[in-house]
Design a protein that fits this description.
GDC-P_C; Aspartate Aminotransferase, domain 1; alpha/beta; 4-stranded antiparallel β-sheet; Aspartate Aminotransferase, domain 2; GDC_P; 25 strands; 7-stranded mixed β-sheet; binds pyridoxal-5'-phosphate; oxidoreductase
Length: about 950
């Protein structure tokens, strides 16, 4: 009889592992042969110092098949109870238009794109974000809007920081917050203020004018639902040189007078209810707008219009010189990853509904609210707010009885304590639902039809909007599903994402975002949960988060995780606050020096600055390692005041520093703590661990190492792992208190679990890989990194290598000598890669004039070889320029990227190279061509002529 496979072998054939890992067994062997290593173990031993090799299993278990992991996570989903939520407070039910759900949220063409640093191959999402900015500007009435911030709470904190930067009342250190602002917003702002050394006073909005402030934060409509005219307050504050910041709501603003007309200088809020599910707190895009005069002080990214070399309008990120990666500790903010995918969804929602559709939705919500208000008053219920858009606050005589009726009807009301309750209606509220709600509150019937047209509105005439909004063509052209579908597709086609080719971004780990990992996020049991619902309804989330946290504890070697920060940079901030809290608890709050190596990511110094730590830079030696002598000298010099060091491991230069344990020891000896930036965890998982190495705290970029997609620039999650001594000092929350020691600490995000609804992605990733798969992924990532280093190293200098001449999981290609010899720049190479169908690697970080390549474990050898072929060809092209065969100012490199317009252009014949070489330089491009839709974009022109609104269609005509 022929030998048969066992049943277990036959089932193992369905494993996820070989789907996640790009190179097949044969390809792996070929790569090992190429770099001269016997096997993965042998290679790992060559790369990773023995002293830090993990000596234990992760304890996660065997890899789960996709179907099994989906069944397991479904069990978590089933433990959530989806009640009808009227809680509001910045989170509302919404109908995600199906055409947007399927074609944007569930479409890898949108969710796997990278941040648009290479704008010529990102015009689609740049247009969608520009629409988001236009929407924000129209509704707030302000001149300039950003491309999204992390959530309403952090946007408010950024508003305060902007106010401090621009206010002419330099003497004042006081920021006034109206007590009618959402409690979670006050919490996040107060945390930020405390650590920036600013004072916060919370009081009634009217009291703001009685203080000498640099700024105020009001809310319109406010926490009770009231819609108050704040024009007088704003005028008085401004007369005293204070800045007026206003938190607001996009749907309300469709109906309400623009806050800028009432005197707001900054308007911020959440765009969640524009078609993004509540998701137990996030991810959602926050919007942020201000006056033109404050543009250089804006936090976060702004998309601006410029032109390309053919004079065509072209979009790109504007004024990047304000950002953390350039200005470091002098940056306006530490925000890096934002909420691009969700901003795109919100802008598409506005495009799909258009001004009339939005008006209809807003008017309907308001009418239903007015009918409810009328009905409640008629029943003798005491309404707290006498004006409203969608929210009513009221008092009842028997709170317990009302809670019981609501519970029985599976309805969540907002309970403000004692006998005070609130309800917020939304787009999904129907007449039937309103009747049920009314019966729950009053035990009597609401005559909705009878009251329609009779019930008085809740907004005074002076606060009604009289101007037209969203007049731009884009908001008035795509209202049929066919048109919408094609608009989304047209934009998608302009963008290069992972569904076209590898994006080998060093430090950013663009690995597979598997379909099975993504599927649960749109299940209603995860998508439709309100973050402030009673905790017993969210048992599934709680168990999932606890389980994920347990796994991450094991993977990192820490003792506890804080799952609140919703980006890596937020994690850095949260981690530094934990360190500060720890020092303070020991009577050492004077420790305020943060050592940061030269090569650090810009968010490190920017976060230190936000925590009021003083940055002292530590030098790196010629091999890219932390200069131990300099470290020892600086640690000793600042021993009295040493708070911590922030290091990245393996280093941003792509090597495992042998001295890492010594670095930790030196800092500890001088009383400091070690913060290890977790962006490079893809080279550690299952092999070593930050807690094991000796670090005290790290953030994990779940959107890098743990498979959450980049979304074109967000969402992300940046939970932090901490050693036990730091656990009491991690972020808490004003509204949700699960019973931890840290519950009453200040919050760093608006929601307790940050962007909770994308945590299932990382849970699925870990479950499906298991112990074996996680370690193997790390090892293959290192194999691929070294394979690229070897193959590219034959043509370009590789800047740094570690022991045995190996790199870790990424390598830095040095273009400076070639630039010196030929005049071809790293920018030319990056743009030329587009012609070859690739997104450039990380440019000029951590070393100017270089490219940092990180292939990840998910790319097959075939794809790696395609990339190598492109880079080798480009090297040949550089040679031709160097030899003078092509003029320095007319060659395929400096003219890159090439568009269809170039190829069609009769004058192309005058170029010294062929159309084929320009656009179809390889067989791969002949088989599957990606066309950049604009030529190289002029950044300087765009910044000199800053324009951040929609461009009229006519501007695109030839
Ligand atoms: C990506 C990255 C960060 C910042 O993470 P965000 O999620 O973008 O805020 C910090 N440090 C390093 C080394 C990174 O690569």
């Amino acid at each position: 009889m022929r030998e048969q496979q066992t049943l277990s072998q036959l089932f193992n054939g369905d494993e996820f592992l070989p789907r996640h890992i790009g190179p097949s067994a044969d390809q792996r062997q070929a790569m090992l042969n190429e770099i001269g290593a016997d096997n993965l173990e042998h290679l790992t031993a060559q790369i990773v110092p023995e002293s830090i090799r993990l000596d234990r299993d992760l304890g996660i278990g065997a890899p789960q098949r996709e179907v099994d992991a989906l069944a397991a996570i479904k069990r978590f989903a089933n433990q959530n109870q989806v009640f009808t939520s009227y809680i509001g407070m910045g989170y509302y039910n919404t109908h995600v238009p199906h055409v947007i759900q399927r074609n944007v949220l569930e479409n890898p063409g949108w969710y796997t794109a990278y941040t648009p640093y290479q704008p010529e191959i990102a015009q689609g999402r740049l247009e969608a974000i520009l629409n988001f900015q236009q929407l924000t500007m129209d509704l707030t009435g302000l001149d300039l809007a950003s491309a999204s911030l992390l959530d309403e709470g952090t946007a408010a904190a950024e508003a305060m920081a902007l106010a401090k930067r621009v206010s002419k009342n330099k003497k004042s250190n006081l920021f006034f917050i109206a007590d009618s602002v959402f409690p979670q917003t006050i919490d996040v702002v107060a945390t930020r203020a405390k650590h920036l050394g600013l004072e916060v006073l919370v009081g009634s909005a009217a009291d703001a004018v009685n203080h000498d402030v640099f700024g105020v934060l009001l809310q319109y409509p406010d926490n009770t639902g009231a819609v108050n005219n704040f024009a007088d307050i704003a005028a008085e504050i401004k007369a005293k040189k204070g800045i007026v910041c206003v938190a607001s709501d996009l749907l309300a603003l469709v109906t309400l007078k623009a806050p800028a007309e009432l005197g707001a200088d900054v308007v911020l809020g959440s765009a969640q209810r524009f078609g993004v599910p509540m998701g137990y707190g996030g991810p959602h895009a926050a919007f942020f707008a201000t006056r033109d005069a404050y543009k250089r002080s804006m936090p976060g990214r702004i998309i601006g219009v410029s032109k390309d070399t053919r004079g065509k309008p072209a979009l790109r990120m504007a004024m990047q010189t304000r950002e953390q990666h350039i200005r470091r500790e002098k940056a306006n903010s530490n925000i890096c990853t934002a909420q691009v995918l969700l901003a795109n969804m919100a802008s598409f929602y506005a495009v799909y509904h258009g001004p009339q559709g939005l008006k209809r939705i807003a008017d309907r919500v308001h009418r239903l609210t007015s009918i409810l208000a009328h009905g409640l008053k008629a029943e003798g219920v005491n309404l707290v707010n006498s004006s409203w858009f969608d929210t009513l606050t009221f008092e009842v005589s028997d709170a317990d009885a009302l809670q019981a009726r609501a519970q029985a009807a599976r309805i969540n009301l907002r309970h403000d304590g004692d006998n005070c309750f609130g309800v917020s209606l939304d787009e999904t509220t129907t007449i039937e639902a309103l009747k049920t709600l009314f019966a729950v509150i009053t035990e009597s019937q609401l005559d909705v039809e009878g009251l329609d047209g009779v019930a008085a509105a809740g907004i005074s005439d002076e606060l009604l909007r009289s101007d037209e909004i969203l007049k731009h063509e884009v908001f008035n052209a795509y209202h049929s599903e066919t048109e919408m579908l094609r608009y989304i597709r047209r934009l998608e086609g302009k963008d290069l994402a992972l569904n076209h080719s590898m994006i080998s971004l060093g430090s950013c780990t663009m690995k597979l975002n598997a379909t099975a990992e993504m599927m649960p996020i749109t299940w209603p049991e995860f998508a439709n949960m309100h973050p402030f619902c009673p905790q017993e309804q969210a048992q599934g989330y709680r168990n999932l988060v606890d389980n994920l946290a347990e796994w991450l504890v094991s993977i990192t070697g820490y003792d506890a995780m804080c799952m609140q920060p919703n980006s890596g940079a937020q994690g850095e901030y949260a981690g530094l606050l934990a360190i500060k809290g720890y020092h303070e608890s020991r009577g050492e709050s004077h420790r305020d020096i943060c050592l940061i190596p030269q090569s650090a990511h810009g968010t490190n110094p920017a976060s230190a600055q936000l925590a009021s730590l003083k940055v002292v830079v530590v030098a790196c030696d010629n091999d890219g390692n932390v200069d131990m002598d300099d470290l020892k000298a600086k640690a000793a010099e600042h021993a009295e005041r040493l708070s911590c060091i922030m290091i990245t491991y393996p280093s941003t230069h792509g090597v495992y520093e042998e001295t890492v344990r010594e670095i930790c020891d030196v800092v500890h000896e001088h009383g400091g703590q070690v913060y290890m930036d977790g962006a490079n965890m893809n080279a550690q998982v299952g092999i070593t661990a930050p807690g094991f190495i000796g670090s005290d705290v790290s953030h994990l970029n779940l959107h890098k190492t743990f498979a959450i997609p980049h979304g074109g620039g967000g969402p992300g999650m940046g939970p932090i792992g901490v050693k036990a001594h730091l656990a009491p000092f991690v972020a808490g929350h004003a509204v949700v208190k699960p019973g931890f020691e840290c519950d009453n600490n200040g919050a760093v995000s608006a929601a307790q679990y940050g962007s909770a609804s994308i945590l299932p992605i990382s849970w699925m990733y870990i479950a499906m890989l298991g112990d074996r798969g996680l370690a193997e992924s790390t090892q293959v990532a290192m194999l691929s990194g070294n394979y690229l280093a070897k193959k590219l190293g034959e043509h370009y200098p590789v800047l740094y290598t570690g022991r045995n001449d190996r790199v870790a999981h990424e390598c830095i290609i040095d273009l400076r000598p070639l630039k010196e010899a030929s005049g071809v720049t790293e920018m030319d190479v990056a743009k030329r890669l587009m012609d070859y169908g690739f997104h450039a690697p990380t440019m000029s970080f951590p070393v100017a004039g270089t490219l940092m390549v990180e292939p990840t474990e998910s790319e097959s050898k075939v794809e790696l070889d395609r990339f190598i072929e492109a880079m080798v060809n480009i090297r040949g092209e550089i040679d031709k320029v160097q030899r003078g065969e092509w003029p320095a100012d007319n060659n395929p490199l400096c003219n890159a990227p090439h568009t269809q317009a170039d190829i069609m252009d009769g004058s192309f014949d005058e170029r010294p190279y062929s159309r084929e070489l320009a656009a179809y330089p390889t067989q791969a491009t002949k088989d599957n061509k990606f066309w950049p839709t604009v030529n190289r974009i002029d950044d300087v022109f765009g910044d000199r002529n800053l324009f951040c609104a929609c461009v009229p269609m006519s501007a695109y005509e030839e």
